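Please produce the structure of this protein holding nicotinamide-adenine-dinucleotide.
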Amino acid sequence: MSATLFSEDLKTNIKKAERMLIGGEWVDSATAETIAVEDPATGAVVASVPAGDARDVDRAVDAARTAFRGRWSRLTPQERGLLLWRLADLIEERAQELAELESLDAGMPIGEARYVDVAFSIDILRYYAGWPTKITGDTIPVSFPTNFGGPYHAYTLREPLGVVGCIVPWNLPLMMAVKKIAPALAAGNTVVVKPAEQTPLSIALLGELVLEAGFPDGVFNYVTGYGETVGAALVEHPDVNKISFTGSGSTGKTIIKASTGNLKRVSLELGGKSPNIIFADADLGKAIPSAALAIFACQGESCVAGSRLYAHRSVFQDVVDGLVEAAESIQLGRGLEATSQMGALISAEHRDRVIGFIDLARSEGAEILTGGTVWGENGYFVEPTVLTNVRPDSRVLREEIFGPVLTIVPFDTEDEVLELANDTHYGLGAAVWTRDLGRAHRMARAIESGQVWINCYQTVDAALPFGGYKQSGWGRETCKESLDEYLELKTVVVGL
Ligand code: NAD
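Below is the modeled complex.
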């Protein structure tokens, strides 16, 4: 890495991840093992973090349980809200440092790290900072017969669950963690966070800011390590009340099975294969650049990437030409360089997986209109790739590639494209581009997906529910409804 990119702050912040945060103390792992963290733009090892194990998880869960029963439970809702707001302020003050860590660790362009990942983390914390004072139960009129010992007064309380295990993926790692931590803490729980093994760096700086904000010790803990050890230990732990997971469907299914010991709650944010539909009457001047961003932002490593683009046959060629031009204009480069518009994929293994899908499409007779290969001498870059003539039953059209690979398919009728859009076991994002109001709303109702965007794409907000239908997950993140996933509902009946 060039010295100019490696600021003093960045070097200092990388070193923080050499230890874990448990019970308010920076601690070593019970193991002497470490995980090498790579810069995906070069493949160089930039950090070494503890490869924790079940003993570290036990310590962290103990600390979280002690904090849950201790001072944290006695804070007023307003005090909890103020702490969340203060944490948001501290993240804002250190936004550039966090963005550099994220860009280095996850490969994304520094602008995306600063104005998507870090900026949205701040928004989410501020949104949930307003909630602790508004978590209320109901007073419920009951209809027991009067000869039943009444009258009665009945009401509900909404109480925190206890200790929440937050398991985080490697794409947009800070934001993915904050989406879990913010509602969990707003509801009064304590957390043990497990970052992805590839991207642990920003979570250490987040831990420092949690302490600086003044959260009681043990409210926020994190343990680094592999999914099969630290993640599995958290999922199986009898004293963890809930797992909030973001990651792949296969890991999500493993987690469901492994969590049955104490029947802990599980929420899952999983993958997608999102259809983006351009009708003949769409404003192509907006739809085409938006479709390019939908697939190529974050190197395509986005759960709501618009990876299946459907264009009405009458505008198909215009859409194809526009997407090829957009793909070819993207400047690839290491995320920390200000000129880079697309960074490296997370690892050599993932790059090879993405290239494997492109090779499969090629072997099945698809046309590769642009891209289709790795980029550069070093690191894990893949060129923005546009495919047409992909076989309808191809794995390329059915599985989540999680890279900068777009398929474009023509269609003739609304019914036909609706069937194509819903022909997937995923249901995370979808978009419809049309000037026909009736059609827009008909499609929004009929598409089986947690989000439907009309004449826009990937418009997310801390107040809007985010989550999936079908195998894209269980539950919702952001939004007021997600708080319910971190709360118990207790019924109290009083004989008067
Ligand atoms: P992954 O499932 O491999 O890993 C996610 C996390 O789970 C990591 O921290 C990992 O260490 C941990 N893990 C792995 N095995 C585990 C086990 N047996 N028990 C407990 N934890 C375990 O996923 P990934 O490759 O890091 O992330 C990419 C996937 O995440 C994609 O499918 C993507 O669509 C999905 N994703 C979804 C959303 C969403 O909001 N729906 C957001 C981002 C990413």
